[in-house]
# Entry
Amino acid sequence: MSDMTDASGQMPRRNPRVGDGGSPVSGAVAIVLALVAVVAGFLILNSISDGGDNALDFPADTSNSSGGDDGGGPVTTVDPSQTTVGTLAPVTTAPAVVTEGASVLVANANNVGGSAGQMQRALETGPGFTVAGAVNASTSVGELDVSVIYYVETNTQAQPVAESLGEVLGGVSDILPMPATAPTSDGDLMGADVLLMLGNDKAGQTLEALNPDLADGGATQLTSPPIAGDTTTTTTATG
# Structure
């Protein structure tokens, strides 16, 4: 472009050319394009390294490592050392008292006079045993420090009644089959199939003293002997 002189005679001015000094706009565009290229390259590299998945999406959930159902919700872990397992209190049931199926005879085998008759009445009015009577023990037996209960084996209900009698008395260790000759004063059982040889350990005492559970209603009574495999209904004993 030529120099021009104005009419006032001032020094001529030179119009700037586009190529002089470069354009500031074109420099900014170049910077933007460079940034776009960098971002695009980053996206391409991430796409290749993740097998084609978009690395800018939400990261994969790696909390469920067991391969189970991941419903998208949070996974809760439990520390076994901090886990408390509750225990149930044991339930105790008083033993059933079988009173029917065999009658009981009480023999005085101690040094307390009248104790056999006293025990006869207690067994009848309390747990409800059928008591044939009260007699003296054979002289060959004499006095017993510890009570013994015998039962007639031919009566299948005699043993359950004998065992229940032992429980009512607070525990009798020796519950045995009846010997060939009953150890009573005359060898007669008076029709009974269970014989209580009342020793010094049980003589002259109440059933409640011998078995505190009776005072608390802890013993139960069956009106008929239990049958294996059947469910029986129990009622609380009175007395």
Summary: Residues 58 and 136 are 97 Å apart (CA to CA). The first strand starts at residue 96 and ends at 98. The helical segments are 24-49, 115-125, 158-168, 207-210, 212-215. Residues 26-54 form one domain.
